[in-house]
Amino acid sequence: MTTVGLFVPCYVDQFYPKAAIATLELLEKQQINGGPIQVVFPKGQTCCGQPMANSGFEHLTKPLNEQFVEQFGAVDYIVSPSGSCALHLKEHLHSDRNEDRATATRQKVYELTEFLTDVVKVTHLKARFPYRVGLHQSCHGLRGLHLSQMSELVASPFSKPMQLLNMVDGIEMVNLDRPDECCGFGGTFCVVEEAVSAKMGKDRVADHVRHGAEYITGADLSCLMHLEGILRRQNSRTKVIHIAEILNS
């Protein structure tokens, strides 16, 4: 049996637990090579350390790295409903105690949609979501994990999140004017450059609203949280929802 360690980032655990539950349920429905998946949730897991690293204090993440390797080192795969956290672990997880084990652990990390398309190779989903939906393609997922093709490149387009969303019954995906534009969140960027971040977020929201999106979805709740704050301040009827909640609906 294949074991998958579910890594739930801090902010998802604290603010969007429904997305974590949807991720768990969605993973439990899948199979790999015809066999079931056993999803485990290591209770000793903590923050991946990305906020400190983004602020220039990566040396303070060492205890978190050791804890992560200890908690997740024994599973076959590690899956997270957060593109930015997954990318941080893929590129920055190291260990002073056992670097070989940290390297092996780092190579097992997947963002949810990446895991469903590349490892599980999902071809159909029993999901229904009869709404107009706009897809926000976060920078970490787009340019770091390569979940979708960047529009600035002359290459064949693809999108792993869109591939999965197109399997959902009743969903209507809206076409955006700028499909891979940054929302302005950027982790600590939204704190140190608040005005720029807010303006970028307003532009991103306006693109979705202008095309009649009832929901904005994506693979990174940090970006969606930023957009949700703007939508609420505008008293907009448009809502945000993590892609796992749609795929598990």
From TrEMBL:
GO CC list: cytosol
Species this chain originates from: Rudanella paleaurantiibacter
Name of the molecule in the record: (Fe-S)-binding protein
Lineage: Bacteria, Pseudomonadati, Bacteroidota, Cytophagia, Cytophagales
PANTHER family, per database record: LACTATE UTILIZATION PROTEIN A, UNCHARACTERIZED PROTEIN YKGE
A single MF term (Gene Ontology): oxidoreductase activity
Domain of life: Bacteria
The Cysteine-rich domain, residue ranges: 4-90, 133-227
InterPro entries (alphabetical): Cys_rich_dom (IPR004017)
